[in-house]
Amino acid sequence: LTPSLYEEMKQLGDAGLKPAAILEAMKKTHPDEQILATISTIYTARRRAQLESLQGLSPVSHLNKTLLNTDFTTATKVNNEGTLQALFFCHA
């Protein structure tokens, strides 16, 4: 995917569209452009976008960081190296 199509794919994915719908929408909005992407390409690009949004953190560590800025109550358990071992959260 070109950088502009990648950004469009991220926006469509964030809007809740499934990969098949993303591919169809991109082909309809760019009829003059030959889009060689497949559904597999969209799945791979969405995974890459997800990993970018985690900012290098594991999914659970990212969730913990996100929950700190909300009304959720959290409790964490870390080992001696400071690695997150367990996460509990509930809405207060």
List the topology elements:
Layout: H1 3-14, H2 19-29, H3 39-53, H4 59-67, E1 72-78, E2 84-91
Helix pairs in contact: 1-2, 1-3, 2-3
What does this structure look like?
With 92 residues, the protein is of the alpha+beta class. The protein has two domains: 3-53; 59-91, no CATH class. 51% of the residues lie in helices and 16% in strands. It has four helices and two strands; from the N terminus they run H-H-H-H-E-E. The chain has helices spanning 3-14, 19-29, 39-53, 59-67; strands spanning 72-78, 84-91. It has a two-stranded antiparallel ribbon with strand order 1-2. A hairpin with a 5-residue loop joins strand 1 (72-78) and strand 2 (84-91). Helix 1 crosses helix 2 (19-29). The chain starts with a helix and ends with a strand. The model has no long low-confidence stretch (mean pLDDT 91).
